[in-house]
Write a structure and sequence with these properties.
Elements (H helix, E strand, L loop, with lengths): L1 H25 L8 H13 L3 H19 L3 H18 L11 H21 L6 H13 L3 H16 L5 H22 L2
Helix pairs in contact: 1-4, 1-5, 2-3, 2-7, 3-4, 3-6, 5-8, 6-7, 7-8
Length: 189
């Protein structure tokens, strides 16, 4: 029972941190994270799609695929995905609360998001999406999860290069590096 409570608490705190990092630091400077969240942010910037709902719609197929390889992650990942998406949409008012430079936003936002995701990983849960896919790839091929996340997220940011300005692209690369390194430090793998 204590383990279930710890996992749920890690999901709540981790999701809250993801919502703060996205809304307080990435979105005000039109930066993106990698993975499905990055795609959801690009869709928000250019089509005004609601980020959290888009994240759920894009992540569900990955959660289903991942559950075929890691059955224990399905419930906790769906829970993490839904709670993270909820916090991302509920904390939208934070977008106008912090005034930081692009560099500060990339680093602070990346560290906050990485802390949230790393906390969830540490307690065997996730926010779904490519973070879960990276966890499975890391475990299957004995790779450092930070490198896998940076690689996957880098591919998403590269895909976003055509719609981002050069400075947003470069700062987004810094943000995903901060996310990946922070996850690696917190998870301890």
């Amino acid at each position: 029972m204590i383990v279930i409570f710890q996992k749920f608490l890690a999901t709540i705190i981790g999701s809250l941190l993801v919502g703060i990092g996205v809304n307080g630091f990435l979105m005000p400077n039109h930066l993106i994270d990698g993975g499905i969240l990055g795609i959801a942010l690009i869709l928000h910037y250019y089509f005004d799609f609601q980020t959290g709902i888009t994240l759920v719609a894009l992540s569900l197929p990955i959660c289903i695929f991942a559950s075929m390889n890691e059955r224990g992650y399905l419930f906790s990942s769906l829970q993490g995905l839904l709670i993270s998406s909820l916090f991302i949409d509920l904390l939208a008012p934070l977008r106008s609360q912090f005034s930081t430079s692009h560099l500060g936003s990339a680093l602070i936002g990346g560290i906050i998001i990485g802390t949230g995701v790393g906390l969830m990983f540490r307690y065997k849960t996730s926010a779904g999406g490519t973070d879960l896919l990276a966890k499975i790839i890391s475990k299957t091929f004995s790779l450092n999860i930070a490198l896998v996340i940076i690689f996957i997220d880098g591919l998403i940011v590269l895909a976003g290069f055509t719609v981002l300005e050069l400075d947003s692209f470069l700062y987004s690369c810094m943000a995903i590096a901060a996310v990946g390194l922070t996850i690696s430090l917190i998870e301890g793998d």
